[in-house]
Amino acid sequence: MKPIQLARRFTPRMIIVLLGVLFAALTLSTFSAGSAHADEVGTEYEFALSGNVKYSGDPLEGVRITAEGGGYEAEVETDAEGKWKIGVPEKDTYKVTLDEDTLPEGVAVEDGANEFQAEFDLIDSVSVNFFLGEDTRETTSFFNQFLDRLVNGLNFGLLLALAAIGVSLIFGTTGLSNFAHAELITFGALMTLVFSGFGLPVWLAIIIAVVLSGALGFTLDAALWKPLRRKGVAVIPLMIVSIGLSLALRYLYQFFFGGGTSQLPGTGQADLKFGPISISPIDIGSMAISIVVLLGVAYFLLRTRIGKATRAVSDNPSLASASGIDVDNVIRIVWVLGAALAGLSGVLWAYFRPGVSWDMGFQMLLLVFAAVTLGGLGTAFGALVGSLIVGIFVEVSTLWIPSDMKFAGALVVLILVLLFRPQGILGRKERIG
Amino acid sequence: MDWGAIFSNAAVELISPTTAAYALAALGLAVHFGYTGLLNFGQAGFMALGAYGYAISILTFGFPVWGAFLVGVGASVIFALILGIPTLRLRADYLAIVTIAAAEIVRLLFTTNSFASVTGSANGLSGYKNEFAALNPLAAGSYGFGPFENNAYDTWLRIVAWSIVILAALFVWQIMRSPWGRVIKGIREDEDAVRALGKNVYAYKMQSLVLGGVFGTIAGMIFALPRAVVPSNYQTTLTFFIYAILLLGGAATVLGPIVGSMIFWVLLSFFSGFVSRAVEAGWFPFMTGVQGSQLRFILVGVAIMLIVIFRPQGIFGNKKELAFVR
């Protein structure tokens, strides 16, 4: 590799700068030892890369730019007008890099795009421009970021919990791992989209969607799951039936609604700032709704007669049946409740992602399963705890891992928990081998 | 309507490498699910490891074909051990959730931008076929007849793919008649009884998981050779389709996965050919061409439900040999 070429060329402007004491002091930091301020290098070559580094109209001085390619390497710093130029020997592809450390405090290259592949085609000179923006990363401390993620994660965890409670209750009462729950989630969001598209106010559309979701749960139980239970189909075939149902419904949605993503009305409102936490009014409403509904479900399960019966069936169906509980009725209520909660969860998920699409529920399904398994299969409150853990873990983990890997992180935790505590966090220790 | 084109397009699928890949993956699943009773929902993950293991070994490390093959197989053995250690002692539905989660982790690892220089991120990898094509002993030209006529590379690929499928089927057939196979089937029927006979059920399950996983991995390589490796091909839906094939043919059979795969692909191709032409001809005025192609997936889902409810043993299965674990 050739040594880095740093041209030492004194321009008249340079000399003026050197003479001005004040100016020299200001630019002192950009001088490298023994080298003069070089805003143009490699001028002996006939081809050149050039550019102008500015941030909101003001030129930035002393920003280091390097170019590399075809075995040639050069480095330059911008002059007082923010300009730079690197001459290159050949028409080749050069990787032009802006050294972000030399940018002033609070300025960064947008989207981290500080590298640019410059290509010569017919012209002899290529201009390379970097887009600078406000550096948001350095203005937020780690703790503040953590708080922000934590609130986001809490929101996500609460909406996960709405879906997970249904999965957990259905598993507890019927033994079915319901893969089609994903489609119940999507159904709520799609129905909200449809009815708000008719011009109804959003709150009314959401209520209609939740009611329709409950009706779908009732229909599925009456038309499919109850006959199968009567037929005495075992748990694992039931699970595969639910996979078939999930596939059929999912592509049915795609058939009618297409593969695109649409937004529910009110999405994308400006964030409100509470100290370090930025949160939109929608998020606040979403969390409030989740908490109220979850408290309602808790009251139902703990205090009402039918709720106690549900927990009894979940605990031991044959014993519950022997003590006079109408198991079929309980299962029907669980399906309606579970589907309605899933529908509501879908609406909130559509605001959280944001967007409604045909496979949105399926994207969340594994996290719901992870939450249910973490909390302990079949326990309603375990599902709540598991969901909060998964939701917060998914969001907070983006501080360390790339955000396109955040779901993988939650699934790894699921596997690790199964390794050490297979019954889940709130699950009762029993033989599950 | 051009019925000839529809039928010949459907016939092409009968021996296509994709059909062979699905057949082999389903055969691996038959070992897991049909014979041992393991609910593996991560077959897509095994296939992804095979495809990426092969492609990355060749593109990044410049391995020969056999080296790349071994890398893929090795990766899937390690993956099976990682999956099996925490879950094989647990109930069947735990294995289902963990395998489906692990397959998604594998796919996300191949999709993330963090390793884009090796995995190609969401765009995937291509350009790894030359090494395999160089092994081709056939002279250039076209072979076969009618809809089965192909150039030298495609013929070579079909010969290799189906030879592997046939060898794997013979192997499964023999091993399931052996004492090892009897223990495996015993585990499916009654795990505790086998344990009472002094067999190490855990070790047998693990061997079965590794064996079926290796089949899935080789299937992933065959699947990757006629196309590029793209992470979105290895979603959970792929596993579900393989389950559909397996259930169609019969879970605890050797021929079932192979014939099931042929029926699945021929019917799917016939159906999509028919629907797209019928839409063009205006037979279904309420449908667009795109919707027509989604209709077949709806039918796959419905077919899975109907088979499980009404013919759980599949086409070739024996009702006495229980198609499902309890």
Briefly summarize what is shown.
The complex is a heterodimer of chains A (433) and B (326). Chain A is of the alpha+beta class and 433 residues long.
Overall pLDDT metric of chain A: 81
The major β-sheet of chain A equals:
4 strands, mixed
* Amino- and carboxy-terminal Cα gap of chain A: 62 Å
Strand content of chain A: 5-15%
Q: How would you describe the oligomerization state of the chains in this entry? A: heterodimer
Shape of chain B: globular
**Largest beta-sheet details of chain B:** 2 strands, antiparallel
Q: What's the gyration radius of chain A in Å?
A: 30 Å
What amount of the residues of chain B lies in strands?
Answer: under 5%
Sequence of secondary-structure elements of chain B? HHHHHHHEEHHHHHHH
- Mean of all residue-level pLDDT scores of chain B: 88
Structural class of chain A: alpha+beta
Q: What are the low-pLDDT stretches of chain B, counting only 5+ consecutive residues below 50? A: none
The domain tally of chain A reads 2
* Rg of chain B: 20 Å
User: How do the helices and strands follow one another from N- to C-terminus of chain A?
Assistant: HHEEEEEEEEEEEEHHHHEEHHHHHHH
At CATH level 2, the architecture of the largest domain in chain A is: Orthogonal Bundle
- The top level CATH class name of the largest domain in chain A: Mainly Alpha
- Overall strand count of chain A: 14
Keywords (chain B): Cell membrane, Membrane, Transmembrane, Transmembrane helix
Organism (chain B): Cryobacterium frigoriphilum
Main location (chain B): membrane
Membrane topology (chain B): Multi-pass membrane protein
